[in-house]
Design goal:
binds 2-(butylsulfanyl)adenosine, D-amino Acid Aminotransferase, Chain A, domain 1, 24 helices, single chain, alpha+beta
Length: 676
């Protein structure tokens, strides 16, 4: 090739990659910071798949701020300590109006020339405080609050949260900018996560705050990435070589324009009365918020006044947390019933003597699974402490043992399904018991359709729980495929449905047919196939038909898919009813853009082992690059290994490979082979 031709051939992927990154960054910003999505989720997913495919074909073009690089760092043995440039302080708490007015009075005494103080009023988010540092506009470090002076380095973990910009959206970023905010787990994600954990018989996360803290402080960033975390920025720790407005509210607006996600409920309050009105308003609406808040925070808006007010011990004089009353109450357990989920899992639910807690009357509480129930030793008739966190299903915290009545009844798992009467089985070493009815069980049918239509699956807008109940109860829909046969007139005949909304729903169902393969596989609701597994299956098989033909051994070759998951996938695709369902779904016109074929050549069918640290790409990127070219990566060196890729500080694998006479590639040779 002539040099100019060669340069052009290399430039084309680089240009496309840059274009894809710019688009993905923009869509991400519109989605998270502006809460105003520009394109459907499926389009975002499609571009991300294309970028991943291009980067795995050209790993030399991967940069740390690429949207694909949010996940990929290797687990670490421990977190390094990060000393905060400015201590991360806590806030003084107030519980009464009097305490709030005292706070305002103390500030007015310092500024007698002002009749009223202007504040920023904002929700007190119930998660984990963090700081994120940007140098020349690029994200370089993330830390937890720790003891306020020193925190833990969670750079990689924080990077997995899509709402955190990796690059600031400004041409003139400050030289150094450290922002501060709160990482939290929204209720929906918290519920979904616990639901799936309970079904797998794993430990339940206690509440959204512990869930956020536990998720961010995982040594393996891939675990953090799989947790549904979100964040808001609420302030600045440090800025150098750049100017920001001198008022808190306006500064947050500038941060928002730079790509940060700011809580939309932050409000300017002209006086302490407006702050108190804000508190009442938030108290009334908190149960409808998608995330947990435990109060509101008032901050003096003028940053110069903040500086003059300063600190007392560990808290600023210019800010106050006005807390909501605790959300725990005592009640008694009237009965325990069992709810049937999508894959047949039976979840025990406590029916309670109704009690007013956190602004609503609660009469049900989830008990997660039999192991949790037994651990807490909950019996019918017991007096229990229940806790309600926002709109999360309330839960039983503990039993008041000394109030147990003589006749308290032990809870036993039913032997037949309460919904369909089919036998219930409990598999060895699983916490969950399951109904064996499959689609003959109305509860399983309902839940299968709910999952299929849900936001992260086919995202059928307007198809809510109540409508699904009606469709299933009227037997209009037995499987997800039936959705696509529904006529507008049938929809219009449902309760609370007009002609207009029926048309809209019909159009939404039709539109959902254009999707991506990972979403489609996730939507099927195969046991233990979450979003990450669906993506891995899609990248490996690249279409539905090869997956349908695959046996368990083939499926186990997929990255991170173990024997149990592979067994569920095989059982699903080889089941006759599911086969008919898949045929009907495809027949109904469900489709996705093709996933690019890996290049043929030197890698085809060859087995690679990786050892040591590669400088220019992560382990996962190297893995993907080999897989994309038809090669296979295994964990240990054997006679069947074709190549050992050895980075810096190789382990014992190098000696073993040399002993067996296996070709060893250093990083340079490996990159050349990838580029050929
Ligand atoms: S400002 C010096 N704003 O509350 C001011 N904090 O008790 C420090 N928090 O560790 C924080 N929402 O984790 C601020 N809107 C908000 C907040 C907030 C939640 C947390 C934060 C901090 C704790 C202080």
């Amino acid at each position: 090739m002539k040099p100019d031709k060669k340069a052009r051939a290399a430039a084309a992927p680089a240009t496309r990659i840059a274009r894809l990154r710019a688009l993905l960054e923009r869509y991400n910003y519109r989605y998270h910071a502006l809460d105003d999505p520009e394109v459907p989720d499926a389009e975002y997913d499609r571009l991300m798949l294309e970028l991943r495919a291009m980067e795995s074909a050209h790993p030399e073009l991967i940069t740390p701020d690429s949207p694909t690089q949010r996940v990929g760092a290797a687990p670490s043995a421990a977190f390094a300590a990060v000393r905060h440039r400015m201590a991360m302080l806590s806030l003084d708490n107030a519980f009464t109006e009097e305490e709030v007015r005292d706070f305002d009075r103390r500030i007015r005494e310092r500024f007698p020339q002002l009749a009223e103080i202007a504040y920023s009023a904002e929700p007190k988010l119930d998660g984990l405080a963090f700081s994120a540092t940007y140098e020349h506009g690029l994200y370089v470090r993330g830390a937890t609050r720790g003891d306020g002076e020193t925190g833990e380095d969670v750079t990689q973990n924080l990077k997995t949260i899509a709402a955190l910009p990796l690059r600031l959206r400004t041409d003139a970023p400050p030289r150094v900018l450290e922002v501060r905010g709160e990482v939290f787990m929204p209720f929906a994600g918290f519920r979904r996560f616990n639901h799936e954990a309970a079904a797998r018989g794993e430990k339940i996360l206690v509440n959204p705050r512990n869930a956020a803290a536990g998720s961010l402080r995982q040594l393996d960033p891939r675990i953090t990435a799989a947790r549904p975390l979100d964040l808001f920025i609420y302030g600045i720790g440090h800025v150098e070589g750049g100017d920001l407005p001198q008022h808190h509210g306006r500064m947050l607006q500038v941060l928002k324009s730079w790509g940060f996600k700011i809580c939309p409920l932050v409000r300017a309050a002209k006086s302490i009365d407006e702050c108190l009105a804000y508190y009442s308003e938030m108290g009334a609406s908190r149960s409808g918020l998608p995330y947990q808040i435990d109060g509101v925070v008032y901050k003096v808006d003028d940053l110069e006044m903040q500086r003059q007010l300063g600190f007392v011990s560990r808290a600023p004089r210019w800010a106050l947390a006005h807390k909501f009353p605790a959300e725990e109450a005592l009640t008694t357990v009237r009965d325990v019933e069992f709810q049937v989920g999508r894959t047949g899992t039976l979840t025990p639910v406590a029916r309670l003597e109704p009690v007013f807690v956190g602004g609503v009357t609660v009469s049900n509480a989830t008990l997660h699974n039999m192991d949790e129930l037994n651990r807490k030793d909950i019996r019918i008739g017991d007096t229990v402490v229940i806790r309600r966190a926002g709109d999360v299903i309330p839960e039983v915290v503990r039993v008041i043992a000394e109030r147990r009545p003589a006749g308290a009844k032990l809870v036993v798992m039913p032997s037949v399904c309460p919904e369909c009467g089919n036998p219930v089985v409990r598999e060895a070493e699983q916490a969950a018991a399951r109904c064996t009815g499959g689609r003959s069980c109305p509860a399983q049918r309902r839940e299968e359709i709910r999952h299929f239509a849900s936001r992260r699956a086919l995202n059928i807008q307007g198809l809510g729980d109540k409508l699904i109940d009606q469709l299933v109860d009227a037997n209009l829909v037995r499987t997800p495929a039936d959705l696509f046969d529904l006529q507008t007139a049938q929809l219009a005949a449902l309760e609370r449905m007009g002609e207009k909304s029926a048309q809209k729903l019909h159009a939404a169902i039709a539109a959902s047919r254009q999707t991506t393969l990972p979403r489609f596989l996730y939507a099927l609701g195969i046991r233990d196939v979450g979003e990450a597994t669906a993506l891995a299956l899609a990248l490996h098989f690249r279409d539905l038909e090869p997956l349908r033909r695959a046996d368990q051994a083939e499926i186990q070759k997929v990255q991170d898919v173990g024997p149990a998951v592979a067994e569920h996938v095989v059982a699903y695709v080889h089941d006759a009813d599911n086969g008919a369902l898949l045929d009907r779904l495809i027949g109904a016109g469900i489709g996705w853009p093709p996933i690019a074929a890996p290049a043929q050549g030197e890698f085809d069918g060859k087995s690679f082992v990786l050892t040591g640290t590669l400088e220019s790409l992560t382990r996962d990127a190297a893995h993907d690059a080999i897989a994309a070219r038809g090669g296979k990566v295994t964990g240990s060196v054997s006679k069947k290994t074709h190549y050992l890729v050895a980075g810096a500080d190789p382990g014992s694998k190098l000696a073993k490979a040399e002993e067996l006479g296996i070709t060893v590639l250093d990083e340079k040779a490996f990159l050349e082979m990838l580029a050929r």
